[in-house]
């Protein structure tokens, strides 16, 4: 791995014009590219992200996973490929400065993938809804007993060795993205660990936990994905 490592960040974003400059501003300076996947936003997300110094790719088809895949395609086209890719959300619920702790197990040669666990860190009151907390518990418990995978969270804030990520052949285009990565990493024998990350109330309304449709849609897709790769 390069010294220093080449680290790129992927941030899927849908209508996050108020939060995205804060997220970009808090990303540690060692990061080479901050790639914002503008997921058909109807506000100025793309404009403010570009003004804040990020690379912006546009993905018209709605879906968390679809946005991530589009950002990955942009990275694949770069002349020099990264060593590590970090995913985080664009709503300022994650603490981007925790990225340094997140990539450390990879830099130490101990892990190929690191999940930022909100379950192990400090959560601001109200930052996760009851359905979110229960859904994470249910999903990680099912993964443990059905696949033997040991995780405490499906947290979006995560780091993975770029070459290993490409080998996982990620395909999910929406809510199943995070759990697909974790299940595939476990089944592929990747070394993985978790580090505690802090979590705060997001800026704006959640596209998942903020609506009944979003909660049930995400819950269904997560459970479906667990059984799909069983």
TrEMBL record:
Any idea where the Glycosyltransferase 2-like domain is?
9-150
Q: In terms of domain of life, where is this protein from?
A: Bacteria
What molecular function terms (GO) are annotated for this protein?
Answer: transferase activity
Asked if Metal-binding is a keyword of the record, the answer is no
Q: List, alphabetically, the Pfam families matched.
A: Glycos_transf_2 (PF00535)
Q: Which UniProt keywords apply?
A: Transferase
What this protein is called in its record is Glycosyltransferase family 2 protein
User: From which source organism is this entry?
Assistant: Algoriphagus ratkowskyi
